[in-house]
Amino acid sequence: MRAGILPGSRVGGEVVRAVNGLTGRWAATARDGTVFSAAGVWPLSAFLADGATGPARAEPSEALGLPADQAAGAARQLLGAPAALPDVDTTVGLWTRRALELCPQWAAGLPAAAHGVPTGDPNDEPVNNAWESNE
Questions:
Q1: Which domain range does residue 100 map to?
Q2: Residue 135's pLDDT is what?
Q3: Which of 41, 62, 126, 135 has its CA at 20 to 30 Å from residue 114's CA atom?
C-alpha cells in the first residue's frame, strides 16, 4: 500500500507506513506459504486501542505504529479510502458478549453498524450475512 495510490484518497503517509510496518513485522515471522495483509486487521486494532486504557492502550499503539489517540481517526481514513474505487467497499466489525459493557463515548466513535452482539441463535445467520455484505 502506498500513500496517494487511490485517486482522491485521504489516507496519509503516516497511516500507510503504520499499516505497512505491521505487515512487515508479521512477514518477518511468517512461515512458508503465508499470505496476509495488516490492512484487514489494522483498523479494528486501531479502534480497540482508542478505547483502551493503561497497558491495554500502550501495547496496541506499539503494534499499530501510531499513538492510540490518533488510531481511530487513522482507521476511518483507511476504511474510507476504497470509496474512490468502483464496486469496492470496506467494513469493520466488533462482536461482543451481551454482558460486556462498552464505554458509550467510545462505541459512538465506531463506524455505523460496526458493533454487534451475537445471540447464539442459528436463526440470526441471515442477519449476520447481511451485515457482512453491507446490505
A1: 13-132
A2: 45
A3: 62
Q: How many domains does the chain have?
A: 1
Residue 98 in 3-state DSSP? Answer: coil
CA distance 11 to 80: 8
Asked if 9 and 88 count as a contact pair (C-beta separation under 8 A), the reply is: no
Name the phi and psi angles at 34, rounded to 5. Answer: -95, 130
Q: Which residues pair with 95 in a beta bridge?
A: 116
The dihedral built from the CA positions of residue 127, 130, 132 and 135, taken in this order, carries a sign that is: negative
Which residue positions in the chain have pLDDT lower than 70? 1-10, 122-135
The pTM assigned to this predicted structure is: 0.69
Instruction: State the average pLDDT for the chain.
Output: 78
